[in-house]
Amino acid sequence: MSPIVELKNVRKSFGALEILKGVTFEVNKGEVAAVIGQSGSGKSTALRCMDRLETIQGGSMVICGHRLEDSNVDLKALRRDVGIVFQSYNLFPHLTVAENVMLAPRLVKGIARASAHGIAEAVIAKVGLREKMDCYPEQLSGGQQQRVAIARSLAMEPKLMLFDEVTSALDPQLTGEVLRVMEQLAADGMTMILVTHEMGFARKVADKVIYMKDGKVHEMGSADILRNPSTPELSEFISEATEH
Ligand SMILES: Nc1ncnc2c1ncn2[C@@H]1O[C@H](COP(=O)(O)OP(=O)(O)OP(=O)(O)O)[C@@H](O)[C@H]1O
Ligand SMILES: [Mg+2]
Fold first, then answer.
1. Of 24, 197, 215, 242, which is the most buried if we count CB atoms within 10 A?
2. Coil, strand or helix: which one is 25?
3. Predicted pLDDT of residue 49
4. CA-nearest residue, atom 30 of ligand 1
């Protein structure tokens, strides 16, 4: 099976400061990869590079067949294939849930209003918010808004979903709702890369765990490395993470 995500020796600097110092990993179709590591280790930067929100200075990166180090990479095609969800939901406050979700299919794919509404209904149902279709974001809880943000990505039928600490702003109950949606997506076969502090969740759903430290992959393996880490650094990270 050929990987849908392939990073080889990826380097990324901001000014003189090198943030990614040769990052290499692969993710196959249908796999869930959890990226973990200390604050500042480069997790978000790596994720943002995968959607070409940042450019890389060295190495190679192929995402869903798009070669990102090429200066003429088709960004529109890339963004159709890759959905990205952040900690902040960034929904349009003046649009209803359905309208927020219909926006990209209509504007980016040029899908007619009626069909876009049908797509929106399906993905909103998938995240368990069918009854909130006509609500405005401010009428929803944080967890519900985050599920709308996930639905908005799903409406584009991405081949790969990237999640950057999507539950960090939520209290435990709302976190659970969002994690259940992500777990269902994983069960449906979606290829996903998630940056997370939720060790329990990573242990449960991740096929691959990528532990980053100082801009490099320090340890990588199946979710089993969360139970049996090989390096003292990952071992220490896990014990700190589970104390909180
Ligand atoms: N746009 C930017 N300009 C300059 N430096 C940046 C920029 N974005 C990130 N950095 C720096 O890159 C380093 C890695 O940041 P990054 O956000 O990737 O870390 P992270 O692993 O996601 O951390 P956290 O767990 O806190 O989210 C940090 O030192 C950060 O200050
Ligand atoms: Mg981050």
1. 215
2. strand
3. 97
4. 40
